[in-house]
Automatic annotation (TrEMBL):
InterPro entries per the UniProt record, alphabetical: CUB_dom (IPR000859), Sperma_CUB_dom_sf (IPR035914)
Limits of the CUB domain: 37-149
Protein name as annotated: cDNA FLJ55126, highly similar to Procollagen C-endopeptidase enhancer 1
Entry-linked PANTHER family: OVOCHYMASE-RELATED, PROCOLLAGEN C-ENDOPEPTIDASE ENHANCER 1
Record organism: Homo sapiens
Amino acid sequence: MLPAATASLLGPLLTACALLPFAQGQTPNYTRPVFLCGGDVKGESGYVASEGFPNLYPPNKECIWTITVPEGQTVSLSFRVFDLELHPACRYDALEVFAGSGTSGQRLGRFCGTFRPAPLVAPGNQVTLRMTTDEGTGGRGFLLWYSGRATSGTGPPPGARRKWVTDPRVEWAAWGYWDGE
């Protein structure tokens, strides 16, 4: 154990040594990703985020991303951060998710507010995200992790039923097991 006088000097000394390279004009050896408005994203997995994330997203924008995972896989989306202007019908700022390439496919969800959407699994190897913003209030936007999942067959699991869940902040469909309607 160190004497009290030595221990009390050790913390500030170690901090000064750690910061010395930066005081001499050196920069940290990492780069922060820059998230742009839309684009084509291809690969087994990765992050997609709103423009400028983690800063506030810009007003009056429409950004469209197409995510493609390898053939024979389905796209799985897991939202890590979600912060868009809240409105019961997502009228002002919203993130929509569509199956396939483009916005004419089946809409898998429309999201706004700060309620993080549940994970989504698309029926195929492509999804399209469309984020629209108005001129008013903004937030940090979204950060999601996408990954390809091997398909294990077609259709829902045996005995599963489809149920639509409607909430002012989210609209989605899921296969599952439950009692009642």
